[in-house]
Amino acid sequence: MNDLEAKIEKYVKTLRENDIRMTSQRYAILNNLASEDKHPTANEIYEDLKDEFPNMSVATVYNNLNFFMQAGIVKELPFGDGSSRFDLTDTQHYHVICNNCGKVVDFNYPGLAEVEKVVESITNFKVDGHSFKVTGLCEDCQKLNL
Predict the structure, then answer these.
(1) Annotated binding site
(2) Residues 72-83: tens digit of each pLDDT
(3) What DSSP letter does each residue of 46-111 carry, written as one string?
(4) Domains, in order of start, for the chain
(5) What's residue 80's pLDDT?
């Protein structure tokens, strides 16, 4: 079993533990999310899979993404560009987003893990999560001299 298959199998197990039956469409959506490093929109997932599943609609993709979010394996990433993107939740990580082409790249910075504890101690809030994004120009767009 390769890394991608192992990753998908871990998510399939979580879905089954949440009483979510695996269908071929759900498996294809999960595989799309796991194999692509692009943080797709629901519409992009639909476009990738519509030839394989001609009876699937964008609404079906959204419904399945909602099941995945309820099971805790997918996060919705509202980057403020008018369309939500979706990301598997296999690790705590952050995103850098190109202001020109919209490319999204994952990165991890361990120092940010302490943010929630610091905020709780300063504010007396019970923090249940945080988000952090960085914006700029990707290497390809920099080459275009934007």
Answers:
(1) 98, 101, 130, 138, 141
(2) 999 988 766 677
(3) HHHHTTT-TT--HHHHHHHHHHHHHTTSEEEEE-SSSSEEEEE-SS--EEEEETTT--EEEE--GG
(4) 3-88 (1.10.10.10), 94-143 (3.30.1490.190)
(5) 64
